[in-house]
Structures are given as structure tokens and as C-alpha cells.
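Q: Could you predict the 3D structure of Glutamate--cysteine ligase?
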Amino acid sequence: MARDTTDFRPIEGVDELVEHLAEGNKPREKWRIGTEHEKFPFYVDGNAPVPYGGERGIRAILEGMQTKLGWDPIMDDGRIIGLVEPTGQGAISLEPGGQFELSGAPLETIHQTCREGNAHLAQVREIAEPMGIRFLGLGGSPKWSLAETPKMPKSRYEIMTRYMPKVGTKGLDMMYRTCTIQVNLDFESEADMRRKMQVSLKLQPLSTALFANSPFTDSRPNGLQSWRGDIWRDTDNQRSGLLEFCFSPDFGFADYVEWALDVPMYFVIRDGRYHDMTHITFRQFMAGAARNEVPDGLPTMGDWANHLSTLFPDVRLKRFLEMRGADGGPWRRICALPAFWVGLLYDEAALDAAEALTSSWTYKEVLAMRNAVPELGIAAPFRNTTLREVARDVMAISRTGLKNRGKKNRDGYDETSFLNTLDEVVARGTTSAEEMLSAYHTRWGGSIEPVFMEYAY
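A: Sure. Here are the predicted C-alpha cells for Glutamate--cysteine ligase:
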């Protein structure tokens, strides 16, 4: 999320919070695709991390991008921490360790999404390469320790950094040493949201497996294919993971609100200042627990929107659904991730097929799959088969969904070609992580340094 929300409307009751989510309902013709992708900046000389300040730092890249694009700066305590397109059609933001993120505009087709991603990478290269900086497309930082990783001057991250060690063992690694590709998708009704939420929660471990791309930590193999996937198993389990209540046949907006109300907050913003609120839940906030702690200590709709943005389940519900399971990766994956989910969720026949395929999957089965995937990838067991075999069926459904959409580019090609990089994973039976590990043990000569050349943007 590039910019925290300011909406000063007071909250009168829980019904307003439910209605806030329901306002995301959109007719099918207004459904859009919003793709986000993160990447690690590094100095080509020595493959070292890039700090915030200095003539060749993150701030200088942002300032260069601001000049090039004409986007508005996002400021935090006088420091530039991001950019936003003036009409809200996209934003650039920083993750805690300097990971550079594009939050894409809401677009109609994967063709547009891929053009957007390629244009962004070209623009940021134009600014960064004269500084000796490139960007790495992996799911986890392969070389730098947590102590070596820079910290971005962003107020919400200061609060999170203090809080994370209290609620899990891997929260700081999540913040500072991981990257993802995500896609945000719409729904037309509560029933449509329910179907998409349940199908995508069940298939999120498969997405993690297909995109597994973080096998190195601290300059050596970490024994995993998705280190990022493993990190999310013990980050802050009050606000993340696989949500069992979403598997209920009558799950709805109100259920998500009731869960969110009992998750500890991170912050509220008053007069541009971030106040640490990690000691209370949003329900307690609504009951007046902060009345004497912060100015205007009663909750607003902006506080609620910000709170929703600090929840990290595998699929996050706001006024749209966020698919959160995939590692960051090479540029082809930036197009593949939205294609995978759009094919499954934006065509009615495909959604019917995906729902039928997963209808009998239980929470315990999906949780076991989620726990196995970080180590085993698409070889993870499921019932009497493996995720690789499940992937064949799911990929076929997604491909059919994209064909049915019939969204063609100027050359007459539909969106199915964007799935080719995932088809390769299934066909060869090895993930990107396994391919990297093979290279590490053979042609890379036991060094992870070549990853900075082969997986750089």
C-alpha cells in the first residue's frame, strides 16, 4: 500500500465497517486487474544493498522517477517515501528494506498489465543504471543479513519493527528480506466474493509452489524452495495465514469484519503523526480505549481502512481481493501471476470448474499443503497425488478462462500466452528455485553471486 488513508468520517457502529467492504461490489463490466510487484535494488559493484540516502540511494531513484513521470511525491516526516500518479492510476512505494514496489493501475487486460510492468522496469532502469544500481527479481534476499539490510525511513515500519519480534520469529525477515508479486481482483456481490475467496484460499499454496523462487539466505542454500512461504508460517499468526472461518459455506463480509476487529492494531495517524496502537485491538479502539492516548482518540473510517491494510492473510479482503501467496520473480512472472488468477476467477465457467475441483478440500488438508510447499514446492503431496498433478488441472482451467475472456492484443493473441512460464514449471517438474539450486551446485560453482546477473532486471 503506497499511501496510508485519511478519511475523517467517524465510525458509528460495526454495520458501517461491513458496508465499507460491501461497497467494493462492482458489476462485471467494471472489474479490473491491479498488479503489484516488488524487487530488491542492489549495487552492481559488489552486489551490495542500496541505502535510502546519498547521491546513489533509494531517495535519489525516487526523485529521478518523480522528475521523469511527473507523479506526486508521498512524504513522511519530510522525506520522500513514494510516488503516486495524480489521478490514482498507480503508485511507487518502498518496503521496509528498500524493496521497490509498483502498485499498478486498475487495468482491463493482462496485455495492459504486462505493458505497464515492462514500462515501469524500463523507466526505473533508466534512472538507476547510471547510479550503478539494478534490481533483483527473487522472493527472498539471497545474500545480505538482516543487519546488513538498509531500513527505510517510514513511520509505520518503525512501529512494525518494534512489534514483530513480540508476535513471531520471522516478522523482521518478512518485512526486510522478502519480495512478492500480487494481484488485486474485484467481485460483484457478497456471494461472488465468497466463491472467489474460498477458491483462491484453497489454491494459494499451489501459487506459492508454482512461483517458488527463494532458495538462498545469507549467501547459501536455505533448504527451502520458498523461504518467503516459510517465513509467513511464523510472522504474526493473529493477522496472517490461512483463515479457517472463510471456509464456512455462509462466510461473508461481516465474518471478516468480526475477525479484523479482534486483531491488534499497528497505528493511527493524527496530524500527520503515527501513534503506536499495537497494545489494543480495533474493537477496543471502538470502545474508547485510546480516548485519552491520542488526539481525537475515536476511530474514523480512515483508521479502519488502514487497519485492513495491516492484515496479512493468504488472501486479503478489502474492497477487492488480494492474492498474496507468490514469491517475487523474473519479469515474465509479473505477467503470469495475474494471468493465473484472472483465468480462474474472472470467467464464470472457469470459476465453476475451480470451485468444483476444490469443493471437497478441507481446511486441514489445505493447511498441510501450505506447510509442505515451502520445502517441497510442486512435489508437495496432496491426497493420493502431488501438487504437480493438481497444477495440470488448475492450469487447464485457468487457460480455458483466459480463452473464454477473449481479450486479444493488436496482433490477435489472447491472454493465454502469459501462462507459458508456469506451464514450463509443470512440464519439467521443477520450480525456479530448484533450477537455481541446480545452477548453484554446478555452473555457479557453489556461489550465489551469479544470481545477481541472471535474475536482475
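Q: Anything worth pointing out?
A: The CA atoms of residues 280 and 289 lie 7 Å apart.
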